[in-house]
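#lab-general

N.A. 3:47 PM
ok so I finally got the sequence cleaned up, no stray characters, all 212 residues accounted for. can someone with queue access submit it? mine expired

B.Y. 3:52 PM
send it over

N.A. 3:53 PM
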Amino acid sequence: MFHRENSEEKDDEVFVAWKQQRRVSESKSSDDGSKLKVPAQTGPDRMTRRRSTFKGVASTVTSVFNMRKMSKARQSLSNHGDGKPKFRYENTYRIGPDSGKTVNTNSIETVVKDILELRLAKETYSSDTCSSIACDLAILIKNTVKDLGFPRYKIITNVLLSQRGTQSMQTASRCLWDASTDNFSHVTYCNGTICAVVLKDMVDRYRLFIAP
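B.Y. 4:20 PM
back already:
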């Protein structure tokens, strides 16, 4: 009986000692694991890892852009009802008047003379009213000449009214143009008290933008 109890006590002591030793070994292993450090990669291994990382990022970005382009292309095709691409043509510019649409000064001078005779035949010179009459004549003459059919021309009208007496008067003008297409007309009308001078310049619109 005594021998049996001693053996059981020895077994208990051995078990307790084994358990304590196991705890000590586990604590040491945990301490060693916490103190372990991953060695830094240097040299070719580190460069290879960086390159592989950059390649992965670049491939991801490229795939995202390609997907966006494909989605935009699908949206554009869906917006077109028939699915056909739209063609974009270059602009066509005209640098001169149409054929047969150049200025005819004879017809312009005839129209201007008729307007002056109808408007000034019974008019008497007055410094108070002649300024407004000159403005009205300029607008009327310009609109009438436009109706003759010169779509690409800029029409400039100058009307000068003066008192008719013993004095002399001279007018002059200057313009930059192309002699083959641009032109001018000059009409003079006088009654008992008024002398009217109308000068019209017809310049192609293209030259108005390129003139210095």
